[in-house]
Amino acid sequence: MLPQPAGYYVEKLRLLQVRMRDDLLKHLRAQEEANEEATLAGVADVRGGDTIYTIDAHSEEILFAFCNDWAKESPFVLIAEGIEGSGWKPFPEGSDPAEAQFLMIVDPIDGTRNIMYNKRSAWILAAIAPNNGETTTTLADIEAAVMTELPTTRHLYSDQLWATQGGGAFREAHNLLTGERRMLPLRPSRSENLAHGFSAIAKFFPPAKTEIAALETALLARVAPEEGENPLVFDDEYITTGGQLYEILVGHDRFIADLRPVFFDALRLPKKLVCHPYDICTELIAREAGVIVTDEKGKPLSAPLDIRAPVSWVGYANKALQERIEPPLQELLDELKSR
């Protein structure tokens, strides 16, 4: 169990993420005013199996400073991309991870490729879990989660969402001009089918794109057969896992899946960029709001809290959609694996 109530960690994470958001917006606005060509898109480093862009480096500075201050209250472990090895970094510096009172998993910028070009919102993701050990603590152990929108310079509002295990999920809109905050509802779609709505299976990058699109086409032919010349299901891929969850949470999308690790394994392709635990660490928010999120086998997510484990996931806005889509999806995945 966590040493403090889950709400305590939510407030800490909300404060951290607002600081990170406001600092990033400052850099984006400076870049825009200077009429510079996406200077934040430069590669700063390659470590921990990830490309660290200049925009990521700015967020890391604030994150590490916050962790140093928080560690004065209690020892903990930060798990984040860019940290070598398993991604575990104990605070205070040099302390024993086994003595940490809790684990904090963070993606400082989920959707770097969107926001570094000032193209579309990215998200800060963070979650807290009790320290059950480096090899045994999983996504299923997370008890508090917060995600904050990193808006482009043309946004007036930034959303912040949070949840605690068994405590429900919440959404607050921040007016970036006035500072006003307003609670807004989370409204996953209640539609029992995909007709005239958005859904997608992630195929962001070239590896396996053709095969993923073929499976997606076969799935939609079973669950949402086309009639007439107008498309029945719309596709709007959002290159950020946090953003994908948000789209389901607010009722924009009805079904989203990211199955890249399954395809890479089945097709014997090199494992390129896939979803990792820090990308999906705020899944608790979706679950508390009534969204159904599973792994590729239809089971709850249970990946270890590290920075390298590949994660496949499927999100359904409601139970009816899961019952309609999951059986044919599982059949198609079984066919893929048996090739």
| Oligomeric state of this protein | single chain
Tell me the strand order in the biggest sheet: 4-3-5-6-7-8-9-10
CATH superfamily of the largest domain: Fructose-1,6-Bisphosphatase, subunit A, domain 1
CATH topology of the largest domain: Fructose-1,6-Bisphosphatase, Chain A, domain 1
What portion of residues is helical?
Answer: 25-40%
The Rg value, from CA coordinates, equals 20 Å
Overall number of strands: 15
Low-confidence stretches: none
> What is the residue-averaged pLDDT?
92
Shape: globular
Figure out the total of helices. Answer: 8
What does this structure look like?
31% of the residues lie in helices and 24% in strands. The protein is α+β, with helices and mostly antiparallel strands. Strands 4-3-5-6-7-8-9-10 form an 8-stranded mixed beta sheet. A 5-stranded mixed beta sheet has the order 12-11-13-15-14. The protein has a two-stranded antiparallel sheet with strand order 1-2. It contains 8 helices and 15 strands. The chain starts with 5 loop residues before the first helix and ends with a helix.
Summarize the structure.
The chain has 339 residues and is α+β, with helices and mostly antiparallel strands.
Question: How is this fold's topology laid out?
Answer:
Layout: H1 6-33, E1 43-47, E2 50-53, H2 54-70, E3 76-80, E4 88-91, E5 103-110, H3 112-115, E6 122-129, E7 144-150, E8 157-164, E9 168-175, E10 181-184, E11 197-201, H4 209-223, E12 233-234, H5 241-249, E13 253-258, H6 260-266, H7 283-288, E14 292-294, E15 313-316, H8 319-337
Parallel strand pairs: 3-5, 11-12, 11-13
Antiparallel strand pairs: 1-2, 3-4, 5-6, 6-7, 7-8, 8-9, 9-10, 13-15, 14-15
